[in-house]
Each structure stands twice: as C-alpha cells, then as structure tokens.
Amino acid sequence: MIIVLKPQCTQDQLQEFSSSLQQQYNVKVNAWFGTQSTVLGLIGDTSVVDIDYISAQDIVESVKRVQEPYKKANRKFHPDNTVVTLPTGQKIGDGSIALMAGPCSVESEAQICKVAESVKASGAQFLRGGAFKPRTSPYAFQGLKAEGLELLKEARKKTGLPIVTEIMRVSHIELFEDVDIIQVGARNMQNFELLKELGRINKPILLKRGLSSTIEELLMSAEYIMAGGNDQVILCERGIRTYETYTRNTLDISAVPILKKLSHLPVIVDPSHASGISWLVEPLAMAAVAAGADGLIIEVHNDPSRALSDGAQSLTPQQFDSVAKRIFEVGEAFGRTH
Question: pTM of this prediction?
Fold first, then answer.
C-alpha cells in the first residue's frame, strides 16, 4: 500500500503518522521524499488496513493498494529514479550513459591492465572482468579466482576505474570487500541465500536477468537484496533463451522501457552476452541507448581469437573505441551525457 501525503505535511506530522500506522497495523513504513510529494510505503499484511480511515486524515493526499509482489523495487513506492553513486564519483541512473568494459575473464596482469587503459581512453567509466567464471562445461576455464581479483585491483590502481566482477557464492563475500560493484550472474539470479547476504552489505549490486526469467522474477530478485537493506541495485538485461539459435541469446530490448516504468532502479544492457557475436554488439548497444538504458556492459579483449572464454563476442580495443563513439553519438541525440 502507498500513501501520498500533502505537500504541507510537516516532519513532526509525518513521524507521528508513521508511528501510529506501525503500532496500529503492525506494518513497516518506508518514506520517500520526492520533488513534488512525500510517499509512504506500507510493507507487510496491509489487508487489515482501513483505507477509508487513512484517506480521512488531513495530511493524506491519496491511498492505493499495490498489487505487485515487489514493493521496494516498485516505482509506485519510489517515484523518482534511483541514482547509484560510487565513492569515487561515478554515477549510474543520473541520465548519463554508464559504460562498463573489459574482458570476460581476467587472464594475466598484462592483459587486464592493457585492456583497462584502452577502454578508459575510449570513454569507459568502469572496468569489468571475471575472476570467478561460471561455465557450462566443467572442463572450461573457470577463472583465476582470488588471484584474478588482485589483478583487477592492480588495474584499478593504474587507471582509477572502479571494478565490476561476478560473485559465485556466499562464502566469497569477504573476498569482495574491496570490489566496487558486485555482479550477480544470470545463473545466480535466483540464488536467494546469496541475494539475502548481499542485501546486508553497503555496496552496489549489478543483478543480471536469468536466462529464462520473467521481468517480474528479476524484480523479485532485486526485492530480496533491497529487503535486506541494500537499495543500491542495478538491473541488467542480458538476453533470454528463446527458440532462436542464430544468436547466443535473444536481447529483450522491450525489457528496458518496461523495467524503467515498473521500477525506479537503473537498467543497463549487456549486448555481448545477448548476441554472442562481436559484430552485433554495436547495433544492439545503440538500440539499448535509444530504448532508455542507463548504461552498457561490453566485453573487450586485446586478442579475442586467443581469449580463454567468450572470444567470439568480445571486441578488440580498436573496435570498442569505434563502438563507444557511436554509443555516445546516439546518446547525445537522445539528450544523454557521458
């Protein structure tokens, strides 16, 4: 249930009203302060709440029940866009285009540092790279693990780029204390125990949509993180599994405006995993920006033909430089900054 308060409501009236709701109905009350109004979100069993009684209060503008099962991620509860801001100043969701780039897997210090320097020069504000790699085959390269994390930190030291990397299990959380943005991969989108633990930390979480997950399921996974107290969630559309076999996945471009309508959380797109084909990255990236995505996460490798994972979908630094220019051009056409 959401309650919109009148603009003239004072802080004392707000606190007194919130306390009475909590005591009378045994619900949790969250307040969001927008530019036009203050919104109260009631979370819990709201079936016993008397809407007529609430509506009759002098400070109440309107009351309505929320049918969707996700509350904290719901735009009805939080009308203004959430902007995730890193301590280093980078923002995601503020109207600019957040560009994350780097290799699928961290392979060596020379490789990750070289790629980091090149993508930064092309306009990327974040360095992505896999230290722990979930692979379909148990015989495929699984990443350098803890060593890979240290190499990412070394690349960050040299370039200043915040690092984005994927976590696999709850027991790894301590290893990720110095990671700037923790990524939850598609295969772990419904690893609810992991999501609960990530809800207890104060760090941005990049949540990728599962291979066969609905939009509501993605938002419910975000709800798990936010219910634990961590509101710094970034949603990622990375393609879903369909009957089409030409591409690795099918990019659900419609998910971008839908998620932006249903939720206040930032939305980025991964055209690399969506297509699995390097030449498709550029058109899909431009389509994502045109659809309203807050950013992109793109795989870049200094030598894709020799990459230990996902070489076919990786751009060279030179290709990425060209694609980044086109992305920013499209963004400027839609009034976006970088």
Answer: 0.89
Higher pLDDT, 326 or 68: 326
What's the confidence (pLDDT) of residue 324?
A: 98
* Rounded Cα–Cα distance for residues 301 and 307 (Å): 7
Among 97, 104, 99, which residue's Cα sits nearest to residue 278?
104
The residue behind tokens 């809407």 is 51
Residue 98 has pLDDT above 90, yes or no: yes
Question: Per the structure block, which two tokens stand in for 226?
Answer: 């936010």
The closest alpha carbon to 17, from 34, 35, 36, 42, belongs to 42
Q: For the CA atoms of 324, 329, 332, 338, what is the dihedral angle to 10 degrees?
A: 20
Q: 96, 133, 84, 119: which is closest to 298 by C-alpha? A: 119
Residue 265 sits at φ, ψ, to 5 deg, of -80, 150
Cβ neighbours of 323 (radius 10 Å): 24
Beta strands 91-92; 98-102: pairing state? unpaired
Specify whether the CB–CB gap between 253 and 291 falls below 8 A.
Answer: yes
Burial (0-12, 13-18, 19+ Cβ within 10 Å), 109: middle
What is the model's pLDDT at position 262? 97
Question: Directed axis angle between helix 281-291 and helix 255-262, to 10°?
Answer: 30
Q: Which residues contact 43 (CB under 8 A, 6 or more apart)?
A: 27, 28, 29, 30, 71, 72
What is the rounded distance in angstroms from the CA atom of residue 338 to the CA atom of residue 321? 14
Other beta carbons less than 10 A from residue 267's beta carbon: 24
Work out the end-to-end distance of the chain between its first and last CA atoms, rounded to an integer number of angstroms.
37
Mean pLDDT for the stretch of residues 63-86: 91
In whole angstroms, how large is the CA radius of gyration of the chain?
21
pLDDT-based confidence at residue 235 (cuts at 50, 70, 90): very high
d(C-alpha 285, C-alpha 99), whole Å:
10
Contacts of 48 (CB under 8 A, 6+ apart): 25
